[in-house]
Design a protein that fits this description.
Radius of gyration: 17 Å
Number of helices: 10
Largest sheet: 5 strands, mixed
Helix content: 25-40%
Strand order of the largest sheet: 3-4-5-7-6
Distance between the termini: 38 Å
C-alpha cells in the first residue's frame, strides 16, 4: 500500500499542481491532505477547487478554521496582526460554499492499512490543531501529544518541516509543506508512505515548481503583507512577522 500525504498548501496552486503530478507518477493507492489549504498564498479559491476534485480525505488545519470563521471580519476590524488580516483577505476570495467546506472539515481521520494497521492524519497533533511539535521537541512532550492515539503511524504538517520521529514503537511523521517550506529548500514537499515487509516506510519527496510564477501571482494581488510572503517563499524560510502574530 502506498499513501501520499500532503499538507500546508497555503493557496499555492503552482506548488500543488507540481506535487500532484509527482504523486500520480508514483502510482499511489490513496492521497490524504493534512490541512492549511487557503491561507497565505495568491489562489485560495483555485486551490480549494482543485482539492475538491480529489477523492481523498482532508482534515482541517488551524488557518482553515480561522479563514472559515463567520466572525473573522469583526475580529479583524482594527486588528494590526498581519496573519489575521491575511486570513480575512483569503476569506474574501472564497465563495460561501468553499468557506463551509473549510468549516466542516474534520480535525482528524484514520485510514485502514494492511495487516490490521492504521494511519492517523491530523494537522498538528491529535489533541490540538495549533500545537507545535518540532524535530527537537522533548520526547515527553511528544508522548503527551500522542496520548490516546492508537495508530502506529501518525501523519501531520503544521510546522512546515519534514521529519520522522519514532515514539514508543510508533512513527510520528511530519510531511512538510507543499506551498510554504520552512527548511530552506524552495521545492514543494510531501510524504510518500509505503507499507512493505510488515512495516511503514517513509520517503520525503521534494518537487520543483515555478516559484517566480507564484511570486508574480502574489504581487498582482492586494494581499496584506505580500512582500513578506514573497520573501518567505523565495527563501524557503518562515516570515518573522507570521511567527509572532498568530491568529
Amino acid at each position: 500500500m502506498r499513501i501520499a500525504a500532503i499538507s500546508d498548501i497555503h493557496a499555492n496552486l503552482k506548488a500543488l499542481e507540481a506535487v500532484l503530478d509527482d504523486i500520480y507518477a508514483q502510482q499511489v493507492d490513496q492521497v490524504v491532505v493534512a490541512g492549511d489549504l487557503a491561507f497565505g498564498g495568491p489562489e485560495p479559491s483555485a486551490v480549494l477547487e482543485r482539492l475538491l476534485d480529489l477523492p481523498c480525505p482532508i482534515v482541517q488545519g488551524n488557518t482553515d478554521a480561522v479563514v472559515s470563521s463567520p466572525d473573522l471580519e469583526q475580529r479583524a476590524a482594527g486588528h494590526k496582526g498581519l496573519v489575521v488580516l491575511q486570513c480575512l483577505w483569503a476569506q474574501q476570495q472564497l465563495e460561501p460554499k468553499q468557506r463551509r467546506f473549510l468549516a466542516e472539515l474534520p480535525l482528524q481521520c484514520t485510514i485502514a492499512g494492511p495487516e490490521g494497521t492504521s494511519l492517523l492524519v491530523v494537522h498538528a497533533t491529535p489533541r490540538d490543531q495549533s500545537e507545535n511539535i518540532f524535530p527537537d521537541t522533548p520526547e515527553e512532550v511528544v508522548r503527551e501529544a500522542l496520548a490516546g492515539a492508537d495508530s502506529p503511524l501518525i501523519v501531520c504538517g503544521h510546522v512546515h518541516l519534514p521529519f520522522v520521529r519514532p515514539i514508543n514503537g510508533r512513527l510520528w511523521v511530519n510531511v512538510g509543506s507543499v506551498g510554504r517550506p520552512f527548511d530552506g529548500d524552495l521545492r514543494a514537499g510531501y510524504g510518500l508512505l509505503t507499507y512493505e515487509n510488515h512495516s511503514w516506510k517513509v520517503e520525503h519527496r521534494r518537487v520543483a515548481y515555478d516559484v517566480e510564477a507564484t511570486v508574480e501571482a502574489i504581487l498582482r494581488r492586494d494581499m496584506p503583507g505580500k512582500e513578506i510572503i514573497v520573501e518567505s517563499i523565495r527563501k524557503g524560510l518562515p516570515p518573522h512577522s507570521w511567527m509572532i502574530n498568530q491568529p
